Automatic annotation (TrEMBL), chains A, B:
L-homoserine binds at E191. Pathway: Amino-acid biosynthesis; L-threonine biosynthesis; L-threonine from L-aspartate: step 3/5; Amino-acid biosynthesis; L-methionine biosynthesis via de novo pathway; L-homoserine from L-aspartate: step 3/3. GO terms for biological process: methionine biosynthetic process; threonine biosynthetic process. Its EC number is 1.1.1.3. This is Homoserine dehydrogenase. Keywords: Amino-acid biosynthesis, Metal-binding, Methionine biosynthesis, NAD, NADP, Oxidoreductase, Sodium, Threonine biosynthesis.
């Protein structure tokens, strides 16, 4: 059987171009891996006449999706067009027409992944999406296969390159958020409308996908509690640093029994933790397994060739499965029911920064309040401010979210407290 | 087909016990993954009557390997007994008897891996060995599958936990090698005879396996240039730190075209490089791919459950392949010829520490010599010593190994040089 595998490509933007290049440049290696030639037959584009920066080797361009989705010769559809509704429709139609699908689309997978995997399974088709989370890191495959015999209990992910770039620059150069964001936009590291990145929405989609796969539970985007980085101040980073922490936007998925917490928030991690060394636009996912302990997967989170590499790795898997006649077997449909943890069940350490009156009794009032709320303190740093105020930085021991939030509320009512300036979660302090 | 898969286990030491526990504790998950029960039928042990710390659930113990290797009911043999010759014989016999093999044995795989994979392929059997390199990290599978469509150009691995533990303690606590080694031996992190670890031999076996798989070339143990950590002084670490570096024992595999360099040596990496944050007994492999760029895989390198998890993940893969009838397809037999780089083709940056006479003209003599040898200098640090001597620390730009070694020779002949105290390779300075 030396039949050629025909691929239909939806989209010829950055990633699509990368896919064309890799398939073209690596024909030998692909041939060795899958045992037959792989060829892109048609590509869906918006503009047939646009000048392209890639050698298309006679591949036909089309503006009609159906020319690809209903072409009986096309075996695999690769969706790299982005967007949500249209992409979802095309993926669904491709699967219904018994075409295997590889997608890099985190939005579609976070919103409709479970349904689409179900459709794939019913049609005995593969639906792979490694490129949708941290393109350059083979994390999804590692969760499914490499840690196959383990039980994953927690994941901490730096899964958004834009925010990690901004936080790295703020931290290393002592600059303000607005400053660095502006520069990042000028350099093309942040979009003109950066909301999805800086407010944590992009990270939320990715941690929903990771949680779904890692815990084998259907984690919906609505299950993810989200906070972004736009309120982080230079002072927060400085005081964090003084106490030994680095600020990262962390997507967290945590499981205790069948109860889960999934969230995205600016988080302080100890400087000695491997996540603290993940800088600039790099991504990483830190995984806790019951048996294996702690592992981390690090690499580029996006970019033309990293993402295209993940897409083509998925394509190789699809073709291998085709040759073995086992497509659709690996559609990882969630097998466990999901229960979100209540605020009594979420426990964490917290960092908080308070402006308080620099008068006798302030400390006693604060510590009494924390103690009454069952929140014990690990580190305290007090510094004088102008105007008879003190800057007080506190790192707590692990406390329930309910107790901690109640404490925050009551702090604002305390006479000696002028303002709670900021409050962040602390993770990774259990590292050896 | 709800046939039970029968496993024969060779060895019931630490890892073997872990394998028994994981298979016992995860029957449900295994059943879900592979669709049939998996049971350990027989275990090869040295002493039938020894008290065991594990529930054996009626599994038969035997002192006769042939009871396992020739039992027609046994589908998969797991080799976790260690050692070389006997383990190799058993693996070969198991394969000849059409049994799939999973091994955690780096020694056997480094020495006889290619031959054994050939035998596996001829018998249409799987031979998997994920646990042989950095047990807790699914690195081999990532190299084969996750980066399938990429071309790997370089790997830097911290692949020996004992030496990383020793170097971490020396660096963090400012202690001497002998001191820390003694403590590590008392704590059980180093063996009574630590030679294989501290002289880099264990790391050499692992980088040979990684190089073979990553480059698809047969890298023999003899191809690996090895240097260990026993001569590293506290001063080397201190001066390295002053110039922004952390000392690690790095296994390196580097490819330019079809020319390779494979080596193990104490290496200085920049403090901001992710490898510098790999501490204590943790392992990591930093991979450079042509398309994907830089990725890192981090986790425990050894330990009962991490290693056993890798073994059971391989077992899951074998059983999946059995159910699909495709065993032996994935035996990754090297496909490219190997050519070792000459000393003219190996280029690197180096750190060196010299004791020189603190007299006028010393610097000129040194810089003239480097310049004559085509080695240019990036950083120089000079400090006074007692006795009219100066401590001079130099970091070079990239130079060929031939030029650098010639420089070292001639340095010793220079009148102003009292002694070349130490010299280390520098890697990872290209990190962004």
């Amino acid at each position: 059987m030396v039949q050629t595998i025909s691929v239909g490509l939806l989209g010829l933007g950055t990633v699509g171009t990368g896919v064309v290049e890799i398939i073209d440049n690596h024909q030998d290696k692909l041939m060795h891996q899958v045992g037959c030639p792989v060829k892109i037959k048609k590509i869906l584009v918006n503009d047939l006449n646009k000048k392209r920066d890639v050698y298309l080797n006679g591949t036909r361009l089309t503006k009609e999706a159906d020319e690809i989705l209903t072409d009986p010769d096309i075996d695999v559809v690769i969706e790299v067009m982005g967007g949500v509704d249209l992409a979802r429709d095309y993926i669904e139609k491709a699967l219904a027409n018994k075409k295997h699908v590889v997608t890099a689309n985190k939005d579609v997978m976070a919103l409709y992944g479970s349904e689409l995997l179900q459709i794939a399974s019913e049609n005995q088709c593969d639906l792979f999406y490694e490129a949708s989370v941290a393109g350059g890191i083979p994390i999804l495959r590692s969760l499914v296969e490499g840690l196959a015999s383990d039980r994953i209990t927690k994941m901490l992910g730096i899964v958004n390159g834009t925010t990690n770039y901004i936080l790295t620059k703020m931290s290393e150069e002592g600059r303000n958020y607005e400053d660095v964001l502006k520069e990042a936009q000028e350099l093309g590291f942040a979009e003109a409308d950066p909301t999805a990145d800086v407010e944590g929405l992009d990270a939320a989609r990715k941690i929903a996908i990771l949680g779904t796969l890692g815990f084998s539970m259907k984690i919906d985007l609505d299950d993810v509690a989200v906070a972004g980085i736009s309120n982080i101040s230079k002072e927060d980073l400085d005081y964090g640093k003084q106490l030994g922490y680095t600020m990262k936007l962390i997507g967290l998925a945590d499981r205790t029994g069948n109860k889960v917490e999934v969230s995205v928030q600016p988080t302080l991690v100890p400087q000695a933790h491997p996540l603290a060394a993940v800088n600039n636009e790099f991504n990483a996912v830190y995984v806790y397994g019951e048996a294996v302990g702690e592992t981390m997967f690090y690499g580029p989170g996006a970019g033309k060739l990293p993402t295209a590499t993940a897409v083509v790795s998925d394509l190789v898997e699809v073709v291998k499965n085709m040759r073995l006649g086992v497509n659709g077997n690996s559609a990882a449909i969630p097998q466990f029911g999901k229960n979100l943890k209540s605020n009594d069940e979420v426990t964490a350490k917290y960092f908080l920064r308070i402006h308080a009156k620099d008068v006798p009794g302030t400390f006693a009032a604060l510590t009494t309040l924390f103690s009454e709320q069952n929140v014990s303190l690990e580190k305290i740093l007090q510094l004088p401010l102008t105007g008879n105020l003190a800057e007080i930085i506190i790192v707590t021991h692990a406390a329930t979210k309910r107790d901690y939030e109640a404490t925050l509320m009551k702090l604002n009512d305390l006479d000696v407290v002028k303002e709670v300036k900021s409050s962040y979660r602390v993770e990774g302090d259990d590292v050896r």
